[in-house]
Amino acid sequence: MKLLLKPLHVVYMIYAAIVFLVIMFLIIPPIFLASFLGRIKGGNIIFYFLRFWSYTWFPAVGIMVKRIYKHDKKDKTPYLYVVNHRSYLDAALAVQVMRLPFRPLGKIEMKRIPAFGYIYRQSVVMVDRSDAKARARSVREMISVIKEGVSILIFPEGTTNETDSLLQPFHNGAFRIAIETQTPIQPVLYLDNGKRLHAKGFNLNPGRCRVVYLPPVPVAGLTMEDLPALKQQVFNIMEQELKATV
Question: Do the bridges between strand 80-83 and strand 185-190 make them parallel or antiparallel, or are there none, so unpaired?
C-alpha cells in the first residue's frame, strides 16, 4: 500500500510547491511597492499580502488551521509572542494566525533564498547569531518596533526542535526584551506543524494544524534579576500545556 501511495505523495509535493511559488510571485510586486512606505507602515501592509499567501496556500494543500483561545482574544495589547518551533511551516502559519501588526525574529541566512529572500528581508527582524554586534542591533530594532505598537514574535528555543523533547531550553533574548520594554509575554503553541512538515526533511502532509493561545504573562515591574524566573515560568507553562494536548 505504501508503494502505491508514494507516487501520489510525490505528485502532492510537486503540486504544493507550485502553488506556493505561484502565490509568492503574485505578491512580490505589491510587496516591492509597499516597501517604499517605510519600516512600520510599509511593513504592516506587507503582512496583509503575506496573510493572503498563507490563507490561500494552507487550504489549497489540505492543511486546516484550528485556533484554540485560552485568553480574551479581543485584547488588542501589543505582545511579545513566544512560540515553540518544530517545523519550517511555523513562519508561514504565523502570518495567518498572529494578530497584526507583528514582526518575527528570523535567521539572517534565510535572506539568501532566491525570490523568497526579498520578501523575508522586508518582513522580519533578522538576527545573525554568530555576531554579537549584529545580535545587539537586532535587539535594538525589536525594541524600537515594540515602541511603535507592533508585537514581536520570537522562537525562544532559537532553532527548530528536532529532538524527542517537547521543548528545547529557552534563550534569554525574548525575556530580556520583554522586561526592557515592559511588554507582556503571550505563549503560543503550534501543536501539529511537526507532523505536517518535520524539521528533519521536506515531507509535507495534509491534516490539521492546531494553534493554542495561552494566557499572557505580565512583566510589569520586573527587572533583569527576574529574568531567569520569568524564562522558567514561561517554559513551564508551555511544557505543561504540550504534555496535556500532544
Answer: parallel
End-to-end CA separation in angstroms for the chain: 28
Which amino acid type is present at position 27?
I
**Dist. CA 157–CA 89, nearest whole Å:** 16
The domains of the chain, with CATH numbers, are: 64-245 (3.40.1130.10)
Cα separation, 197 vs 199, whole angstroms: 7
Cβ atoms of 70 and 216 within 8 Å: the answer is no
CA–CA distance, 43 with 157 (Å, rounded to integer):
25
Least confident of 103-107, 133-137, 171-175, 215-219: 133-137
With the CA atoms of 86, 91, 96 and 101 taken in that order, what torsion angle do they form, in degrees rounded to the nearest 10? Answer: 130
Distance between CA atoms of residues 86 and 104, nearest Å? 16
Question: Do residues 51 and 100 touch, judged by C-beta distance below 8 A?
Answer: yes
Q: Return d(Cα 9, Cα 4) in angstroms, integer.
A: 9
| Percentage of the residues of the chain whose pLDDT score is greater than 90 | 54
